[in-house]
Amino acid sequence: MAQNYVVSLDDEAVTMQLRRENGRTEVRRGEDEHWFVCELERVGDSDLYLLMIDNHPTELYLERRRGGAVVTIGRHTFDFDVAPWRPGTARTRGHAGAKGVLRIVAPMTGSIVEVRCGPGDRVEKGDVVLVIESMKMNNELRSPAAGTVETVPVAAGQRVKANELLVSIRTGEG
Q1: pTM greater than the 0.85 cutoff
Q2: How would DSSP label each residue in 41-59?
Q3: Residue pair 77/70 in contact by the 8 Å Cβ criterion
Q4: From its phi and psi, is residue 153 left (phi > 0), alpha (psi between -120 and 50) or beta?
């Protein structure tokens, strides 16, 4: 039997189905689409995962958080909310307008190449706040929401570990 979930990114909510049968995990979007065989395997003790969808590999960094996850694939970061599907949940809103402090943490161990913001700076959703190098690839980390930078406890050239705080942003301000 399939389990239904609502996956929200920004203001878009999608119903996903997940089923596990005979040691296989399959997912599909909605009820009318094709089922895809998927596997998610963690690489060591890091936040690096190998995602296989119908035998096509994708490397991603996964930071689990209450009610969802932050997923980084290449230079793109997605902040997903995930909830069990219930009648009426298909129109859930994203969190981008919520007030509070967002913590941007290192998705992997690496070196800070460039810091593009400082305390007191105003950032918009999608602005690059810093660049981190790992495995000889530069990765731009972007602000998930508009707000004011509170802290930047790192500097260019500094080595950081996975999940180390890089930038904190106060959101929900005008």
Answers
A1: no
A2: EE-TTSSEEEEEETTEEEE
A3: yes
A4: alpha
